[in-house]
Design goal:
217 residues; mainly alpha; 3-stranded antiparallel beta sheet
Length: 217
């Protein structure tokens, strides 16, 4: 297993590094880039650019990446220049596992070529990242699986109880509440997500009548 100091950078870190280099080559300030992005339909402020370039943003959705590329007039693959691995899943959500690809593989994907993917962690950890088909729909269950493991119950039992309360999985409800908070700095988002998860699991444990001693896991 790689040492902590050798941990692969996240997508946000790699894109932020590339964005800074592109911006400097084009002699643009962060405010200049923000203004271009607003005209391209992405309502970012200078602070958004600063957060991305300063490694304070772990992930970046595809739509945002496309707008960045269009605004700076560069190919998508150029955001993954160089060599080395890239952590594709948020480190905050999957601290012991995750999906990883090399920068070369990502450039191949973005150029329409086939590429591979490396999934880290043991089989049990990887299972926490799986989606789950429930009542005819595919739902995320990362938080549900973690809760089930701590409580000594099945994922099906957790999802069934969560559906009764929120009409969705624990993971879906957590993600909805975090998304409702808007765009936050990564540290604040992580803290809020942890707080929301604890609140929801307490409700779920009560609904499932989990013994008090099992809730401390």
């Amino acid at each position: 297993m790689a040492d902590e100091e050798e941990a692969a950078p996240t997508v946000g870190m790699v894109v932020g590094e590339s964005l800074k280099a592109m911006r400097q080559r084009q002699r643009l300030t962060q405010a200049d880039v923000a203004a271009v992005l607003v005209r391209a339909g992405l309502a970012w402020k200078r602070t958004h650019i600063s957060d991305l370039e300063s490694d304070r943003r772990e992930t970046l959705d595809l739509g945002t990446l496309v707008v960045l590329a269009q605004a700076l007039d560069v190919p998508l693959r150029d955001f993954f220049a160089g060599e080395g691995n890239v952590l594709l899943t948020p480190r905050a959500e999957y601290p012991e596992s995750g999906a990883m690809a090399t920068r070369e593989q990502l450039r191949d994907w973005l150029s329409g070529e086939e590429a591979g993917l490396t999934v880290m962690g043991d089989r049990n950890v990887r299972a926490f990242m799986d989606h789950f088909t429930w009542q005819g729909r595919d739902i995320p269950i990362e938080a549900d699986a973690a809760f089930a493991g701590r409580m000594g119950v099945t994922v099906q039992e957790v999802v069934k109880a969560a559906e009764r309360i929120w009409r969705g999985s624990l993971t879906e409800e957590r993600d909805r509440r975090v998304a409702a908070l808007g765009d936050l700095p990564i540290q604040e988002r992580q803290a809020k997500q942890g707080h929301i998860t604890r609140q929801l699991t307490a409700i779920l444990a009560k609904q499932m009548d989990v013994p008090e001693e099992s809730r401390d896991g």
